[in-house]
Amino acid sequence: MSIESRIIYTKTDEAPALATYSLLPIIKMFSKHANIDIGIRDISLAGRIISSFPESLRDKQKINDDLSVLGELVKNSDSNIIKLPNISASIPQLKSAITELQSQGFNIPSYPEKINNQKEKEIQKKYQKILGSAVNPVLREGNSDRRVASAVKNYAKNNPHTMGDWNSDSKTSVAHMDDGDFFSSEKSKLLKKSDKLKIILKDVNGKISTLKESVETDSNEIIDAAKIDVNQLISFFKQEFNVAKNQNVLLSLHLKATMMKVSDPIIFGHAV
C-alpha cells in the first residue's frame, strides 16, 4: 500500500489510555470510506525500552524500533502520522517502567546509575536515548516549521483575547537569576571543519574528568555551552522563597525538564 493511502496512528503513553483507544475506531470509521488504511506504530515508553534490547529477549517478545521507522517516514512529504501525547520520561519513570517489564518476563537490564564497566556504560547510553523528550525531536525532523499560519495569526490580531482587569495591587511577579545562570555564562563557537570533541569537567581542585569521549560535529556547525553556579542558584532560591513567604503568595517553580533532562532535575532537587 502506498504512503498516500496510509495513515500511521501512534501508540503512546497518553493517560487515560481510553482516550487513545476511543479515538482510533472513530478515525478508522471515517478513513475506510476513502480507502485509507490505518497502521499502528508503538512509540510508547515501554515499546521503546523493549525495542532497544532485542539481544536480551525471546523472539516472540521482540518488537521493531518504530520510532526510527517514523523518523525516516517524516522525511517524506506524503507521510501522514497522527502523533498522540507521549511521556517525556524522567529517570524514576524509566526505572519504574523497566521494573514493570521485568516483572512480566522481559529480560531487560536495569538502569545503571553508576558505571562500573563497559557493558553498563553501553546500557546506560541506550537508556539515555529514551529519557526526556526523545520522540518529538525525531518526528519533527521532517516538519520543523511550527510557525502559525497567516490566517490564524491575522484572526488572533483582529480578535484579541480579553484578559480582564488587573488589580494595581496584585502581588504577582516573575523572578529570575541575574547572574551565575546559563544565560550569563553561555559561550558559542562556529566550527569551520568537522571534528570530534570531548566534554571535560575540571573541578575546583583541578581534577579533570571526561564526561563524554567523542562528540562528532560537522563543518559550519555551531556548538554552544553554558554552566550554572550552584551556590548562586541556592541563594536565589532562598531569597525568592522568603519573599513569597513574607508576601503570603503562592510560589511556582517553572522548569523545562523534558528538554533540559540533565540539568533541570538537578535544579529541582536544589529547590526541594
Gist?
The protein is an alpha/beta fold and 272 residues long.
What does this structure look like?
- The protein has helices at 17-31, 45-52, 66-73, 91-103, 118-128, 136-139, 150-158, 182-185, 230-247, 263-271, and strands at residues 6-11, 37-42, 81-82, 187-191, 195-202, 208-217, 221-225.
- With 272 residues, it is α/β, with parallel strands linked by helices.
- The chain has 3 domains: 3-142, no CATH class; 175-186 and 227-272, no CATH class; 187-225, no CATH class.
- It has a 3-stranded parallel β-sheet with strand order 2-1-3, with helices on both faces.
- Strand 5 and strand 6 form a beta hairpin.
- The longest helix is centred in the last third of the chain and has 18 residues, at 230-247.
- It is globular, with a radius of gyration of 23 Å.
- It starts with 5 loop residues before the first strand and ends with a helix.
- The model has no long low-confidence stretch (mean pLDDT 88).
Write out the strand line-up for the largest beta sheet, numbering strands in chain order.
2-1-3
| Total number of beta strands | 7
Percent helix, as a range, is 25-40%
Whole-number mean pLDDT: 88
Topology:
Layout: E1 6-11, H1 17-31, E2 37-42, H2 45-52, H3 66-73, E3 81-82, H4 91-103, H5 118-128, H6 136-139, H7 150-158, H8 182-185, E4 187-191, E5 195-202, E6 208-217, E7 221-225, H9 230-247, H10 263-271
Parallel strand pairs: 1-2, 1-3
Antiparallel strand pairs: 4-7, 5-6
